[in-house]
Automatic annotation (TrEMBL):
GO terms for molecular function: methyltransferase activity. Residues 37-149 form the Methyltransferase domain. The keyword Transferase applies. PANTHER family: MALONYL-[ACYL-CARRIER PROTEIN] O-METHYLTRANSFERASE, METHYLTRANSFERASE. GO terms for biological process: methylation. It comes from the Bacteria. The keyword Transferase applies. Keywords: Methyltransferase, Transferase. This is Methyltransferase domain-containing protein. It comes from Roseomonas populi.
């Protein structure tokens, strides 16, 4: 690939500064899957300033990180700025195949390859580079790709509104001169529709080009270079198709919306509508794809093939009558036991988890709606867990870990909680298992009756897993929660928060006596004669696609049962109200509910919890989940901040996903504030083992990490 010049040294400094501004987010995307074993080789292709290469070298001191870029001056500058013993920089063609590596990282490279190919704007050149990335991986190696993806369907148009003539003039110039390297001619059609009524100017154009304009309109100092590049050339699904066709598993591919860009460059500075006058979501500011190269015969993807009409035989359903009506619940024959083997070396916590464990709920029908387009293979990083009554922990551990608990070691109880109290009658008991040394990567044990590929057991940096959870790369909530509790118990730092910045201007209120929130409710629920009609159980056939020598081939299939709401979608939103008392302590507003799952699991129906609502169809809005949460909580959308990424609370039973938010307590309506009890956050964290609501546990520990001082 020829090297495209962006301009003078100042232009490059501005370009690299923009790239490095999202460094924490990029590093967080890597954390759950970064290969950190001693001797591992990691390539940063198109390394630019070298800042990300240096961050990876620091995260994986036992690995060898090599930054590769085609520009010799850039490589010289990177080598001068970043001097680490396990880091080197080389001049080379980042779009070509490299020496075999355990991980390949490619950030904002492919759209350059596409733009500046010998035949400009060439998709085949970008595909060849992506396949070269994958060819550079050893079996089991990981590709982390960050670039752009196309917005909207092919040919889809939209109406774009801009404030002021200066912005309109820039759009006209962009429409006339975009893609100047195209031998067939530059530009795209732009129809002027006049004023919107409030001084904003309206235009009709393809949705793709509206997104391209919004993503670059603020880079005016380097406008000529920005005109040449076309950021997005493929939709998200096409990236996944190429990766799977090359024998790799898409761990996650997702649109990403940088919150700073959304708030400072989109919101209030542009408006987009579809042709029916409905507001469109903001375009993704980038996409991220994590893929794992699997050996021939390894699982590439899970797919829901069909529904099975036979009645459910594994999951049970029951109905319970109580003070507030009838509740439906689903349950497995036993509870769930989670194990977290760990070791601490030089003050760093590492944990053993299952990597590549099949969770069909992640790909079940109805799970693709929501805030952002997302694709997953259906394989996750999660706890070593099993359905069990927990009466023989040693036998349970050996059955799933594949090796015994060392003599003289006893599992340490971490938590006992309800992961989804309104839907699932299941108590999860989590245990930490201290080990002197964590074992090397090894195949995970296959449970009796499971035909699907079980993946491997692998050790992970604990703080890195938390960063991954905060940005959506670790969807399994139980592993995140156990890691957070264990770090606090060991008095080890949880690390720097990678999610969106939270509100700092909090109201001052008087703290409630926590005992008033936690007083018992007794056992008011009795079996109901008929179901409430809220839940249904579904049997589905899930099929594996395997990596074959000549391309993907069909693998095993398995019938599994899931529980889904009968009249709602897969999304839940939780909203944690936050305040401070006069002494500066952080307070969180708790709701006290009375639920049958709490009565069945713990002998008392009272459940102090975070306010949460199950959604139907998210509303048409630029940020659908934020808008839905605001409507449910009765507050302004702008008062809410996402508390990290969405998570799956119980992926073995239900496709439910939860997006947590925080809100200043005084932004809530008075009617809701009156029933909330402000409780000190630190008081809750100190009693985590006694909290029963999984959503509250996740929200409280994430909030503590985000504030970095839960005083």
């Amino acid at each position: 690939m020829d090297h495209p010049a962006r301009g003078d040294a100042d232009a490059y400094r501005r370009y690299f500064a923009g790239m490095d501004a999202s460094l924490d987010q990029k590093a967080a995307f890597l954390s759950a899957h970064l290969v950190t074993d001693p001797g591992a080789r990691i390539l940063d292709l198109g390394c630019g300033s070298g800042a990300l290469s240096a961050r990876m070298a620091a995260l994986a001191p036992g690995a060898r990180v090599v930054g590769i870029d085609i520009d010799a001056g850039t490589i010289a500058q990177a080598a001068a700025l970043h001097d680490l013993p396990n880091l080197e920089f080389r001049v080379g063609d980042a779009a070509a195949a490299q020496e075999p590596a355990d991980a390949v990282v490619s950030c904002s490279l492919l759209h350059h390859v596409y733009t500046y190919a010998p035949r400009p704007y060439d998709e085949t050149a970008a595909e060849a580079a992506l396949r070269a990335h994958l060819a550079s991986l050893r079996p089991g190696g990981l590709l982390v790709l960050r670039d752009f993806c196309r917005d909207g369907a092919p040919g889809e148009t939209c109406v774009l509104e801009l404030p002021g003539e200066e912005n309109a003039a820039l759009l006209r110039d962009f429409a006339a001169r975009a893609r100047p390297l195209d031998p067939l001619g530059a530009g795209f059609p732009l129809e002027e529709l006049g004023e919107a009524g409030d001084g904003w100017l309206r235009f009709r154009l393809h949705r793709h080009w509206a997104a391209e304009f919004l993503l670059r309109k603020d880079y005016r100092e380097d406008w000529e270079a920005e005109l040449r590049e076309e950021y997005a050339f493929w939709p998200l699904r096409r990236f996944a198709e190429v990766v799977e066709g090359a024998g790799a598993r898409v761990v996650r591919a997702a649109e990403v919306r940088n919150p700073w860009v959304v708030q400072n460059r989109f919101a209030g500075r542009a408006r987009r509508w579809d042709e029916r006058g409905r507001p469109l979501p903001w375009p993704a500011t980038n996409m991220v794809l994590v893929a794992q190269k699997v050996p021939v015969g390894g699982a590439v993807r899970l797919q829901q093939r069909r529904f099975d009409p036979a009645p459910p035989t594994y999951l049970r359903q029951s109905a319970w009558s109580g003070p507030d009506g009838t509740f439906d619940l689903v349950q497995r024959p036993t509870g769930a036991v989670d194990f977290l083997p760990f070791s601490v070396t030089d003050g760093c916590l590492r944990v053993l988890a299952r990597n590549g464990w099949p969770r069909p709920a992640l790909v079940a029908i109805g799970t693709e709606t929501g805030e952002a387009a997302e694709l997953r293979s259906g394989h996750v990083v999660e706890m070593i867990s099993l359905a069990s009554d927990g009466e023989d922990l040693a036998a349970d551990f050996q059955a799933r870990a594949g090796f015994p608990i060392p003599s003289g070691t006893r599992p340490e109880a971490l938590l006992s909680f309800l992961p989804s109290a309104g839907l699932v009658d299941e108590v999860v008991r989590a245990f930490a298992v201290p080990l002197p040394v964590l074992p090397p990567v090894q195949p995970a044990s296959r449970p009796p009756g499971q035909t699907l590929d079980p993946g491997v057991l692998q050790s992970f940096d604990a703080a890195g897993l938390l960063r991954a959870a905060e940005v959506g790369m670790l969807p399994e909530a139980r592993l995140e929660l156990a890691v957070r509790v264990l770090l606090r118990r060991l008095d080890l730092p949880a690390g720097r928060w990678a999610g969106e910045e939270l509100p700092s201007d909090l109201p001052v209120v008087v703290a409630s006596n926590p005992e008033t929130v936690f007083h018992p409710a007794g056992t008011p629920f009795t079996p109901a004669a008929g179901a409430a009609g809220y839940l249904r159980r579904a049997r589905s056939v899930f099929v594996e696609t395997l990596a074959g020598a000549g391309g993907p081939v069909r693998g095993a299939e398995q019938v599994l049962e899931l529980a889904v709401p009968a009249h709602h979608g897969a999304w839940t939103v939780s909203v944690l109200p936050v305040a401070r008392d006069a002494g500066g302590r952080v307070l969180v507003g708790l709701e006290r509910r009375v639920l049958p799952a709490a009565q069945l699991g713990f002998g008392d129906a009272a459940l102090p919890c975070v306010p949460a609502w199950r959604l139907g169809v998210p509303p048409d809005a630029p940020e659908p989940l934020r808008e839905a949460a605001a409507r449910a909580a009765g507050c302004a959308p702008g008062s809410l901040a996402p508390l990290g990424a969405a998570y799956h609370p119980s992926s073995g039973i239900t496709p439910e996903r939860v997006q947590p938010f925080v809100v200043p307590l005084d932004a809530m309506p008075s009617a809701l504030r009156e029933v909330l009890q402000p409780v000190p956050l630190r008081w809750l964290l100190d009693r985590a083992a006694l909290l029963r609501d999984g959503h509250l546990l996740i929200a409280a520990f994430r909030l503590a990490c985000a504030l970095d001082d839960p005083a």
